[in-house]
Design goal:
Elements lengths: L14 E2 L2 E2 L1 E7 L4 H10 L3 E3 L2 E7 L4 E7 L4 E6 L1 H8 L4 E4 L1 E2 L2 E2 L4 H12 L4 E4 L7 E4 L8 E7 L2 E8 L4 E7 L4 E3 H6 L6 H8 L3
Antiparallel strand pairs: 1-2, 3-7, 3-8, 4-7, 5-6, 9-10, 11-15, 12-13, 12-16, 13-14, 14-15
């Protein structure tokens, strides 16, 4: 059974001994995410393992457990030297790369991961979406977020995606709290709007 996400911070989280750290996606063996996270904790490697509450219906009851929000991935904040230690961790298959080089996550993606990790009851996995009606949240704790609008059991949900690993998650919203992203871009800029867009905007 998966456990709630784990986040370990190192002294000098952004830099260490003159080496810059980046957030990377570590691809794991199936159902090894929690095992990998535990080993990274023992190695004092900064990481995130966002989880969600998964419901499974049994004959006499509904069982709820914590499960990885992004199955097959643990996200690590590492330097080049620390990346080698991650690859030497049992259960880690590789680091997501492009053209043979580790592919750092964008700041917007890291912001999304942090929110997912902090709010396990509000997010759930969703089939990866790339096209659809793009909207922006106007009010509430997720104001400024952009994603694709979908519906589940007549409830509006915002789908946001991690392009780097081609995975999506969704959260429930009040349909009145969103506007089309195109209309939002045409509207007069509001104080802090640019910061909100850059935090979780996905284009």
């Amino acid at each position: 059974m998966a456990e709630p996400y784990s986040l370990t911070r190192l002294p000098g989280d952004a830099t260490g001994a003159g080496t810059q750290r980046h957030w990377l996606a570590a691809y794991t063996k199936a159902r090894h995410e929690t095992l990998v996270a535990r080993q990274l904790t023992s190695k004092v490697v900064s990481h995130l393992l966002p989880t969600y509450i998964r419901s499974a219906r049994w004959s006499d009851r509904v069982k709820r457990t914590m499960a990885p929000l992004f199955p097959g991935y643990v996200f690590v904040h590492v330097s080049d030297e620390e990346r080698v230690r991650v690859l030497q961790t049992a259960g880690v298959v590789n680091i997501v790369s492009v053209a043979g080089r580790p592919a750092p996550l964008a700041d917007a993606e890291v912001a999304l991961l942090r929110e997912c990790a902090a709010r396990p009851r509000q997010f759930e996995p969703h089939p990866f979406l790339h096209i659809g009606e793009r909207v922006r949240v106007k009010h509430g704790p997720f104001a400024g977020w952009e994603g694709i609008l979908t519906y589940k059991k007549n409830a509006a949900r915002l789908v946001v995606s991690l392009e780097q690993i081609m995975r999506s998650v969704s959260l429930e919203l009040d349909g009145a709290d969103v506007e089309t992203a195109f209309a939002a871009r045409l509207a007069p800029s509001r104080a802090g709007a640019c910061c909100a867009q850059s935090a979780v905007g996905f284009d």
